[in-house]
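ingest -> validate -> predict -> emit
validate: passed (alphabet ok, no gaps, 406 aa)
predict: started
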Amino acid sequence: MRPVAFIEPPGWMTEPATAVVLAALGARGATIRFVGGCVRDVLLGRTIKDVDIATPDPPDRVVELLDAAAIKAVPTGLAHGTITAVMPPRHFEITTLRRDVETFGRHARVAFTDDWAADAARRDFTINALFLDAAGQVFDPVGGLADLKAGRVRFVGDPATRIREDVLRLLRFYRFHAYYGRGPADVAARAACKALADRLPGLSGERIAGEVLKLLLAPDPMPAIDMMAEDGALAVLFPAGVERDRLAELIAIEAAPDAVRRLAALLPSRADVVEEVAARLRLSNAERDRLLLLADPPCAVDLDADERTQRRGLRRLGLAAYADLVLLRAAETGRGADAQSLIDAAPRRLPPPLPVRGRDVTRLGIPPGPQIGALLGQVEAWWEAADFQPDRAACLARLAELAAAR
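emit:
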């Protein structure tokens, strides 16, 4: 396989940690190349996240080579040929070249090989099947370089076959188009996604959630979201419907992307829908609770409310939830300019904590129990009604009055 292009190796390729790992893996003469996302992103001039390396050596030999160089080797996927080399400041995922013998869902029975083209042929998209050696030579067995330059996300081989091998690739197609696609999407890929969208419920909730949240973090996921709607995939994932326009408006006005807030904008503002989606996608408790708060908040956010009402909302919601709800309300009403001014003013409007605590109640001779919470609640209601102006002395006096009345 001949190189098709050359790049000047960037810093991460020549830093000491990378050099040590490459020297260890090539100690017996094997050809070593970078592969996958790090190659794709460096060719686009983007910051890389992970470093993947391909080698024709089998996993047991990879471990021997790393051990001989005193590099920590972690068998993260030994059966499928993957070893992680830990060489601070990086982790290097090293995978033996392989070909699929049998595929079933997210797993496959593989055979190790020394054929670089065979390894490329089993990958999902052409832009993920590019190889790069330490000298900066680019190898392209399946036409990924032209696709990368054109902003075209294309499956390796027959799209329907690749999706049947692992249905998650259907969602990955939309996500990769959101990050790397430009212009109309690949026709064959979309046709396969549309035909096989009804297989999405067979995926685990965690795998669906991972792809959906990553997609929503794209700078502009709307073209991909719209394709998912047109192809029927969105209705399979969210049968209760979606708020497409609200999400689009939110993306236009928010300062930075936030996957959970964007998901809240996409879903109908109904607690029952949010509960069902959170359970089906196996979202974390924190993600579920945040979505529920945004769908059914303890108090409404009114963009036109006076200072006092804004302070009360901030007190009940906290800065983060208040900002989320302001953005969602602005997205619903097309008032993005008003949203940022409210968010900017929120820190100075946020009331201080209630100046009295439970120990102040017990000092008045009230025994531990429900009465403490009830008395604090009465003081808090009085303090809030006074626009949070009474200081600690005034709150203590009011507490004493209420305790005496009891």
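The chain has four domains: 1-150, 152-237, 240-351, 358-405.
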